[in-house]
Amino acid sequence: MTLPACPQCQSIYTYEDGSQFVCPECAHEWSATDAVTADEVKCITDANGNRLSDGDSVTVIKDLKVKGSSLVVKVGTKVKNIRLLTDASDGHDIDCKIDGIGAMKLKSEFVKKA
């Protein structure tokens, strides 16, 4: 049986760990059910049209009020290691953790790729 190449870095040195596949070069883990073609993946872009992917760093381009709080995410705030949400029905398609605020979801239209 031939193991699939890593969908993130295209490395051929993947190995099987239980029901997961693991890439030793980029540490990406995925299951056999997660293996989808590039046509099936929803493309999420930033405010400038650049394609975003999991693990990217982005910068906020507009002051954003945090709902239910008096906190504000200021323009220029850098957010590291984002995670994309493909099933976001409310438009918030980025899951992240912002220093000083905590975990929250952002809309990709209010960020640019750093």
TrEMBL record:
InterPro entries: YjdM, YjdM_C, YjdM_N. It comes from Alkanindiges hydrocarboniclasticus. SUPFAM superfamilies: Prokaryotic SH3-related domain (SSF82057), Zinc beta-ribbon (SSF57783). Residues 2-31 form the Protein YjdM N-terminal domain. This is Alkylphosphonate utilization protein. Belongs to the YjdM family. Signal peptide: none annotated. Residues 45-114 form the Protein YjdM C-terminal domain.
